Amino acid sequence: GQQVMQIPQYQHVQEGEDFTTYCNSSTTLSNIQWYKQRPGGHPVFLIQLVKSGEVKKQKRLTFQFGEAKKNSSLHITATQTTDVGTYFCAGPREHDSWGKFQFGAGTQVVVTP
Amino acid sequence: NAGVTQTPKFQVLKTGQSMTLQCAQDMNHEYMSWYRQDPGMGLRLIHYSVGAGITDQGEVPNGYNVSRSTTEDFPLRLLSAAPSQTSVYFCASSYSSTGLGGYTFGSGTRLTVV
């Protein structure tokens, strides 16, 4: 079945530094989405990417969808303590049936002041 | 406030007990899903629904039942609770089957089975 892998599983970052987290799927995705979950909270939708090679920015966050639509990345610049949380990528396989939306295991981000 | 409402927020069950986790959304979303979240395993799909009267299994359906009699409600039933079902359960909804536009999650139910 489809597998969505995220690396790294944990990311310790000094405040002000940049980092990137990666998402890889074993199959082509029709779109990819990113979610953020604060400690003790629920996942919150950040963004979706649909087109091959698409790049989108949200302030200090840059999201990219790979040319083959099988991988994606999230790059955060000048990390702040508000960036703490777990970031999940998720997506459905292309041409898949209803609702089978699969999440990666997430990258847990810890920010050191 | 528009969104997904889950009840209860916390629950402790004894092994063998049954219960229903409630989920309701007021956004007129056709697509609703139940996920469980365990440490290091991300979110795993239990069951999902593409509209009233239509449900299907996700990747970890054993021990759970669902029904969808209305667009708004999608309850999850634990038939005979087991310690392995200790987890955080999230209900989510979307207007699209592929999640285009994003899934809206409820605040979760933290379930402990002893």
SSE layout:
The complex is a heterodimer of chains A (113) and B (114).
Chain A lengths: L3 E4 L2 E5 L4 E7 L6 E6 L6 E6 L5 E4 L2 E5 L5 E6 L8 E8 L8 E3 L3 E6 L1
Chain B lengths: L3 E4 L2 E4 L5 E7 L5 E7 L5 E9 L2 E4 L6 E3 L9 E3 L8 E8 L9 E2 L3 E5 L1
Overview of the structural elements:
- The complex is a heterodimer of chains A (113) and B (114).
- Chain A is an all-beta fold and 113 residues long.
- Chain A has strands spanning 4-7, 10-14, 19-25, 32-37, 44-49, 55-58, 61-65, 71-76, 85-92, 101-103, 107-112.
- Chain B has 114 residues and is mostly beta strands.
- Chain B is globular, with a radius of gyration of 13 Å.
- In chain B, 39% of the residues are buried.
- Chains A and B meet through β5, β9 and β10 of A and β4, β5 and β10 of B.
Task: Write a concise synopsis of the structure shown.
The complex is a heterodimer of chains A (113) and B (114). With 113 residues, chain A is an all-beta fold.
For the report, how would you describe the main beta sheet of chain A? 6 strands, mixed
Number of helices of chain B: 0
Mean pLDDT of chain A: 91
Low-confidence stretches of chain A: none
User: How would you sum up the global shape of chain B?
Assistant: globular
- The secondary-structure element order of chain B is EEEEEEEEEEE
Provide the structure class of chain A: mainly beta
| β-sheet strand percentage of chain B | over 45%
Structure characteristics:
heterodimer; A: 113 residues; 6-stranded mixed beta sheet; 5-stranded antiparallel beta sheet; 11 strands; B: 114 residues; mainly beta; 7-stranded mixed beta sheet; 4-stranded antiparallel beta sheet; 0% helix
